[in-house]
Amino acid sequence: MAASETPVWRRARPWFVLLAIGLFVTFADISNGVLTLGDVDDHLRNLQIRHLLDTGAWYDMSLPFVQTPDVYVSPWSRLVDLPYFVLTRIFGLFAAPDLAFRLSTFVWSIAMTVLFSWLAASAMRLINGTGRKIELLPVAAAGFAMTLSFLEFTPGRTDHHNVQILCMVGMIVGLAAGGRRGAAVSGIAAALSIVTGLECLPFIVAAYAVLVVAHMLGKAGSGQFLRVSAISMLATALVSALAFLGPEGSLSVQCDAFSAPYIAAIAGSSALLIGASLFERHVPHPAGRLALYSFGGAAVLAVLAYAFPACLAGPYQMIDPVSKTLWLDRLWQEHGILMHAREGLRWPSVVLAMHALVLIYVSPTVIRAFREGRAGVAAAYAMATLALLLSLVLMRYVRFPTAFVPLFIPTLFASLQVPSTAARSIARSRAGTVLLIAPATAAIVAVAALFLTVPVAPRPYDAIDYLARDECVGEDMSALASIPPGRIMTPTGLGLPVAENRIPGISVGAIPFHRASPGIRRSMLAFTTSDPAVRRDVLAPFDYLAVCRPSRRFDEASAPLYVGLARDGRWPGLVPVPNPVQSRFQLYRIDHSALQ
């Protein structure tokens, strides 16, 4: 029976397998009430969506409950807020606002799990080759290898990484499908990923670099694919700019979010891809096309650098040295695999080594696909490879290779089951045996070397680490309801728990996000400085100060104010505000004239 004549339910079996695994993983994750990947991003996103529901101000990204002391302006896209906003409005017709919002997070998470499973199954089928059957066992193996990615879709995860994964796997579907439709899907998905956030930009660049190479080498259909995908990418970016930023936001310069620099970058690169593909008849030689892309790309980059010089410093250019040293440099996701090994976290090295083996062993099949004109498969492979390499040096990327690399597992199984004549002859030779065994041996040796040569020596937690932790889980904060409106300075880890009380007129001065760097700096200096003049200066714009007594004692020299309040709850110039219920949460009114 031809593939097109196969019953729909039979063709959908890989999707059902992945969906079953995905639902099992996500429901297991919520069974104990603690999300494996839950983090502060979810909490701030929830507050952002609730603020949007309260105000209806679609284009206004300011969050007045965070003042550092300036009002915090969120870089996060309304694209992610949209489904929660719509669903909450619908559920709000028959449910209380809080219940309606919780229902929206649950329903949309399940919907994303369904969509991700379908996209992943489609990508596996297309990478394996049209008309070639994929077995359910390798699909199941791929599904369990995607566990870390499925955890991003657990109900309660409202962060934007799940949307980025959907966009990237959707882009891989378009790349592997090829043709006009695949090109359109690829361009739309790439643009929506940039609209969502900038983390996946390296993967998009890697994929299109492979497609450009295919075009330079004269691969059939590559020019058309570049042209159509560029048009769809540009159109999606322009529509998204108007829909999610508005005219004013589209012209703003935000180096850490989708705005004018990235709209211009998409427009410039799209013009280059469209122009180069239209002139392919006039520039038939690969060297000529290389020159065309090289000079055109250099011109686009030069214009962008001239028009947006501030962005040359990168998306984190607003982070000051104090915030970087005492906050950013201590975040686990900002370090690579070696630091995690020293901290005793060994599983990333094992997982990434297994993913690396998949990429190594499937590489001959990918090369053959590229030679056969399926450049999109090679582009998807480049995305997976880059995601793995980035994860080695920056652990924030680890969620992406676990979504990309398993897509190649069914193809790897198929290539092992039905090897070509050339592959069989190589396998029978001594050199072929070495080629088969060497990668696995190298991976085992590399992981073993990491375990043996990098001793487990966790950095001891100090008071500064505890400033970034939420030490008030489950603690009563009733004292907040008894004070007049004002600004509260907190440790960075306590800012969001205080803000989540959503008391009108109350704002916090420090939350653990890069745009809040001015507040992080003030918070860190307030609690760690031994100079009363510095403390008075950084706390001058604030009316109150709040802490939660930590569960252990620290050296007073590292954070005098924090340790002092934790020890006996008293400090000159800080007047305690009584809490109706006994709690480790401590709120103070700042008497600036007496503050030491």
Main-sheet strand order equals 4-3-5-7-6
| Number of contiguous helices | 26
Chain-averaged pLDDT: 89
Classify the oligomer. Answer: single chain
Spatial shape: globular
Catalogue the unreliable spans. none
Give Rg in angstroms: 27 Å
Share of residues in helices: 55-70%
Structural class: mainly alpha
Beta-strand share of residues: 5-15%
The total of beta strands comes to: 7
Largest β sheet strand count, sense and barrel closure: 5 strands, mixed
Q: Report the span from N to C terminus.
A: 83 Å
Give the topology, please.
Layout: H1 8-11, H2 13-30, H3 40-55, E1 62-67, E2 71-73, H4 78-91, H5 97-128, H6 136-145, H7 147-150, H8 161-177, H9 179-196, H10 201-216, H11 222-251, H12 260-278, H13 286-307, H14 321-326, H15 337-342, H16 347-371, H17 375-393, H18 401-404, H19 409-417, H20 421-428, H21 430-453, H22 463-467, E3 486-489, H23 492-499, E4 506-508, H24 517-528, H25 532-539, E5 544-548, H26 560-568, E6 574-577, E7 585-590
Parallel strand pairs: 3-4, 3-5
Antiparallel strand pairs: 1-2, 5-7, 6-7
Helix pairs in contact: 2-5, 2-6, 3-4, 4-5, 5-8, 5-19, 8-9, 8-17, 9-11, 10-11, 10-13, 10-17, 11-12, 12-13, 16-17, 16-19, 16-21, 20-21, 24-25
